[in-house]
Each structure stands twice: as structure tokens, then as C-alpha cells.
Amino acid sequence: MSKKILTVGYVVPGHDDYLAFDSKSSLVDADLIIFSPEIDTYFSQDTDYQGKTRYSQDSSFQVKEALSHWRQELLDFVKSGRNILVLLAPKREFYLHTGQQNYSGTGRSRVTTNIVNLHNNYEALPVILNGLTLAHGKELMPTSKCREVFQFAPALQPHVEYSVYFRLTDGIDPIYTTKDKSRIVAASMKCGKGNIVFLPYLKYEEENFTEYKTVKGEEEAFWNKKGMAFGQQLIDMCLRIDSALNSEVESTPPPTWSMKSEHVLPGELDIQKNITKINEQIEELRAQKSNLDSDLIETGKLRGLLYETGTSLEYAVIQALKLLGFAAENYNDGELELDQVIVSPENIRYIGECEGKDGKPINIDKLRQLIESMNADFAREEVDEKAFGILFGNPNRLKAPDERQEWFTAKCIVGAKREGIALVKTPDLFEVVQYLMENNDTDYAKQCREAIKNCLGECVEFPQKPDATGTKPSAKPEWQSAA
Q1: Topology, domain 301-481
Q2: Cα separation, 44 vs 55, whole angstroms
């Protein structure tokens, strides 16, 4: 009797038993699975975020459901004593909506932020490959575990290339490594009563394996001889590997009736409970990692003080001001929009304006905009006293701070002095934030607030940071004293 082979996420030319990654189908009727975590083309993408794909809220739910579905299906399949062959597709990291939201501001200025977590397509596997890294190469070094059944036939060899590599851990038998033998690109492992074999990805261009014929007046695509040969040799290789793995342990899969409670052996229930407990711990750790990934991204946004512009710079400045003890938020009532409304614990009120420039210093235009914003704010009915102004500048933002020379133009400096507006270099603010995040130093935060108040009309010089003893000031970078 021929074996039923199901492929998931990877199309084998000439083989029809294929399931898409977004399928909800079960694997229970299959004898052998060829699986590849190909996710790119199945779900509608939203936008890029932090340089990676961010799925829409609807798609996020579908992706999570698909990852969970295949993880459980593959686990059940291999635990039953059958084998899975995984073609190691490129690792794809992406952001999924958690369904949670953060809120900042009040009234019309209230801002809603959707919380996202970082995920990857290999979460569809029932096991974790430690140190899994996106990498490409064609040089494979066979190990002592590389038997003849793992060697690629002539039709397959031109298409073999690794897309990821990972580290050696307990329970994994390496089959192929990178050329320097430092990383694994193919391996096998025992899982439950079955086996999982990880093979390098087999990449092919569909158009090279396709020919077109006219059927009933319409042109249709068919696999050509080259494609059929590729597909048949891949299936043959998978069957040989499956047969070799099964011959190592000749055992009959347990009939359903043998698993009833009256046939349970002493200790099996306790073992199963422990397995369930460990699986729950794994899921909990996955959730913890996702939360930490999110926290890492959120914390890293403050580094935007060094290189960001636009709304990203505004966000970083607001978070930095909060660390200094200010109350700070964007303001937008539909008519007037302000980068920051800032109030110190000493009840001094400021209007902030942010500007990042790619290759130029901050000029008079942004200062003029800040002055207009201050006047418009003062004209509001609920404002009794005119606020002071702070211009946060991040010029030549793509250069390291010590490579920047002119921060504010001469006109901007003169205008700021005349209007009593403080000029703040956002990389200076980063130095302050870096210290305060590590040290709960309210005295130093207060000194920084006083520095802003005392430097109205000039470039703010923040006080030097205390050293570990809290007495001797640490050295100030040379670029901080340049205007």
C-alpha cells in the first residue's frame, strides 16, 4: 500500500496532496509530512514597523491561529510514531497585534497605541531550534551522521541551499553543517515516538518547471519534464528517509482501543501530566519572551533622541521629559497642534517644538514656528500666562554626535536669545536619559529641569552626571559644548 504524503507550505512539482499554510486541515490521515513554514503569501500584510512586516489586526489573529494550528497538528502527528520532514525556509520575523492598547493624553489629545509583539514563522514547529538565524549559503559539509539516504539526487543538487542555521543542542543529530562546521543546516531528532528531520531548503523557479498547453481553447500551465523529475526525486528521497527511520525501531502504532483507561500502565498518567505541565511552561515562556521583545522595542525608542525626526523624535522627547519629572504630551484640539505641552513639578509651563535635519543645522524657520505656536497657545481662553519655549534640535541626525559641528544656525541662536527660548540638543538629552534610567536620581533630574529654566535664551548645558560614588562628575563629551 502506497504511503499518503501531505506537503504543507511547499509545492512539490507533480504532487497534488498539498495544504496551504492558512489551511485548517488535519494531518491525521497522512503517513508522512513534508512541512515548510512558508508564511509570506498567505495573509494580507499591513505596514512595515521597525523594518519588519506588521500584520493587520484581522491578519494577526489569522496568523496566530495558523501558527498554533500547525504546532499542535505536527506535535500530535510525530508523537503518534510518524515522521515529519521540514524544509528549512528563510526565517521571517513580523509583528502581530496583541489586541491590547495603550492610551496617553486626555480629551481631544488622547492618543491610542496598538500593542504589537514580535513573532516568527518557526513558531509553527512543535520544537525550538536554538540559535536559529537567517543565513544563506550553498556549501554543505556532511557529518558522520549523514547516511546515504540523506544525500541529494542529481535533479535536486542544483536547488539545495540553506536559508537558516542553528546550534547543536541535546537530542539533535547533525546531518550537514556550514563549511566551517560551526553551525548546523540539517539534522534529525527523535520527538515522541516519531522523528523530525530538518533539511536545507530546495529553491526553484516555478517558471523553469512549467510549460503551457492549449486546452479547450485556453492556455493552461503544466509541470514540464524537468519539474516532474525534481518532484519525483524529492518524494523518493523523503520516502527513503522515512523508511530508514522506521526500520531503526520496528514497532506497531498503538491501536486506539489500547489507549483506553483500562490499559494504561502505572506511571503513564504522571508522565503525561508532567509533559502537559512542561508544554504549558513553554507556552508561558513564549508569552514572556513576546512581552520582553515588546518592552525592548519600547525602551529602545528613546535612542531615537540620537537619530530620529518627525513623530518618532517627538515621542522620544516626551518620554525623556517624563524621566526628568515633567508632565509632557502632544496637544491637538483640531485647530491648534503642538509638539509638546510641558509642565514642570515647579509649575513652570513650556511649549516644545522638535526638529530633526538630515544634513543641516536647525534654522530660524523652526524657531519661528515655535514662536507662532507659543502665541497661539497663549491666545487660548483657558491659558492665563504665556508659556516659555523649548526648541529640541537633532541636526545632521544620521551622523554620530561627535561628528556634528553646527547644531543651530547663527540666526536661530540670535532669535532664541531675543525671544527667551531654550535650545536643547536631543543627543544631550539622551545622555541625561541614559543616566536616569539606570539611577533613580531625583536630585539630578531637578538639576536638569533647573538647567532648562536657567538657559532660556541660550543653548542648554545640562549638569554633568555624578559618577558611581555620586560625588565626582563624569566627563562631558566634547560635542556637548559646541553650539
Answers
A1: Restriction Endonuclease (3.40.91)
A2: 7
